[in-house]
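Researcher: Final request for today, and then I'll write up notes for the group meeting. The sequence and the SMILES for zinc ion follow.
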Amino acid sequence: MKTICWLMLAMSAILWEQCATVKSKWDKHRAEYEKYDRPIEYASLENSLPPLAALPPLPAFPEMPDLSKLIPSFLKKENKNLPLAKKEPEVAHAGKKKIKKSPERKAKSNPIYRLRTRFTPKDDHNIHKASRFSYPVGFPDAKGYYVAQGFAVPNKNYGNMLHLGEDWNAVTGGNSDLGDPVYAVANGRVLSAKEEGHGWGKVIRLVHTLPDGNEVESIYAHLDRIDVRPGDLVRRGLVIGTIGNAGGLYLAHLHFEIRDYHGGELGGGYASELGLCLHPGEFIARHK
Ligand SMILES: [Zn+2]
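Model: Predicted protein-zinc ion complex:
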């Protein structure tokens, strides 16, 4: 009996050491990955739309070693006697088709799917708070997109007035981003979602309550499609619409603004002063 106890203790020590080695490997690789989490580089205006500088390829992630090989066979045999977890009953759906998982279960097991679901009225009020922001395209870090016309840049086509938002474009250029998903940058509520005319096209306006109680508005313009309705509660990362060209007025892109107030006049996208418009990229980088 004593020998078995000592054996078990020795086995646990070996397993513990293996786990510590694996964890340190993963920590090291995570640190390497974080190096790639750098701020978006903003391209200059004036039709020069260079793609983002190419990043070196990501290092290969280490494979998880098969720890089960370390478990002695006599322990494995004992484990066979353990009661098996109850099998989930299959859920029958309308028609003859049977699927293994109900949509709810699928949603629970997939964090990305969960991110993109709408809130229900039963949700806790606190989770409506916009505690984190991400980019409106290429969720969550704008991968594959760049800012074609930056914030506060004077535009000679509009009497050198300042651009009040950012124009997001796919690095593949032209109309290649037409129909690409547009994501809610944070948890919030839909203020309005409609055709605004005057060069705006379809526009969605969201209001976000920050953890400190302040409210900011995010504006998504020139959309091809609108997927939300006024009053909807949205989660960060929910697809709220798609990138458009304002009915053929421009090459497809997303005009995106963040304002330090909400519900004001939509305005013209350009003005001689920035007013309460915030630098969208900077704001998101600070609230990631
Ligand atoms: Zn714009």
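Model: The pocket of zinc ion is lined by residues 149, 163, 165, 167, 255, 269 (CB under 6 Å). The chain has three domains: 2-80, 88-117, 128-286.
Researcher: Thanks, that's everything.
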